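Supplementary Text 2. Reproducibility record for the structural model of the 92-residue chain.

All settings were left at their defaults, and a single model was retained for analysis rather than an ensemble. We include the record here because the model underlies the residue-level annotations in Supplementary Table 4.
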Amino acid sequence: MVGAPVQIPTQIVEIDCQHVWKELTNYIEGDLTPEMRDRIAHHLQRCRHCTAIYDGTRNVLQLLGDKQSIELPKGFSERLFDRLVLLTGQQG
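Retained model, structure tokens:
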């Protein structure tokens, strides 16, 4: 057919893991250009490590955005700090 539009296949430019990590929150929140969103989605389809980080980040953001807060047991923060000091061999 003469004059018919010819579809040109588009190629997604690869993105590295560190760039994906930097943009994950923006990806989850939808604050990216369509091109960058597609590049990250393409990367996540092929990279198990980044997919695991994406899932974890998404879960943390959902927990932080949850209106319900978790009540920590009395003295929890102090015990946690003491434990971290013990494990790292540092004194505060």
